[in-house]
Amino acid sequence: MDNQNQPLKIWAGLTTLYLIWGSTYLGIRFVVESVPPFMASGMRNFLAGSILLIFAILTKKFQKPSRKMLITTALSGFLMISVGNGLITSAARWIPSSYSALFAALSPIILVLMLWNLTKEKPKKTVIVGSILGLVGVSILMSLKSLAIKGTEQYYLLGIFFLFVSVISWNIGVILIKKADINQYNTSQIAGTQMFVGGCLSLIFSYLYGEFDNFQVGNVNDKAIFSFIYLLIFGSIIGFLVFGWLSKVAPPTLIATYTYVNPLVAMILGAVLANEKLHPLMLLAGGIIISAVILITSANRKEILQKN
Fold first, then answer.
1. What pLDDT digit, counting tens, does each position of 264-291 carry?
2. Spatial CB neighbours of 125, under 8 Å, sequence gap ≥ 6
């Protein structure tokens, strides 16, 4: 009976991931309207990491970490959380949420290019075509300065730079985790450590950058508070747990579909809840980027499915 229901459970998990992670970009935008970006990112990940580590301990899934595990999770936490999440949160002050989601969808493309450079192994033709398409889509996005949040046009290019660095830093962290081969540790312990370390470093940077000096709790509006709670509970904790479960029971190519469904969810929510413009060229760029991601994630589908 369980095996018969498994496909239904997998699709329920994927749908949950699509909706939750697709909505986090708008949630981030609402939070940074009244909370400094690195403070918001740091506090969110510090709390989420603490909760996941406590969960790992209470469920007796926590193992004594080795030096290799600590170094790997700390470094990847800095790259993925402090830099990656921190910069995408910072860019949310100037760049629409749907736009940020499209840049995040570039992750598979950038990951392929980075691995190509590291391994010197030439990727398949479909992967090369997908990578070129992705770059074309990004070029179109970069030309749309009119999409910047009203009054922040002067920071548009800086926001794009932050998004690029965010995606690159995130993927370096992913590669570090993969190469370290620390799968003997429970995923809640690995992610919890990453979030905890990355969150702490983000809060330290926030303090050094002076965000605490100008922050006043009384200026935080209700929308930011509810968005922060949503990001913490759903975006970080529930989203991670669902992703971790899917990673064990579903093919990687199926899980990877979130990278091109999330931008669609972000576009719809941004237009409906935040009156974000859906410029025709942005929709064209989005279609090109999503097509590129589909090409790349499906290039090795047969090989991946055989391994699973």
1. 888 889 888 888 877 788 888 888 888 8
2. none
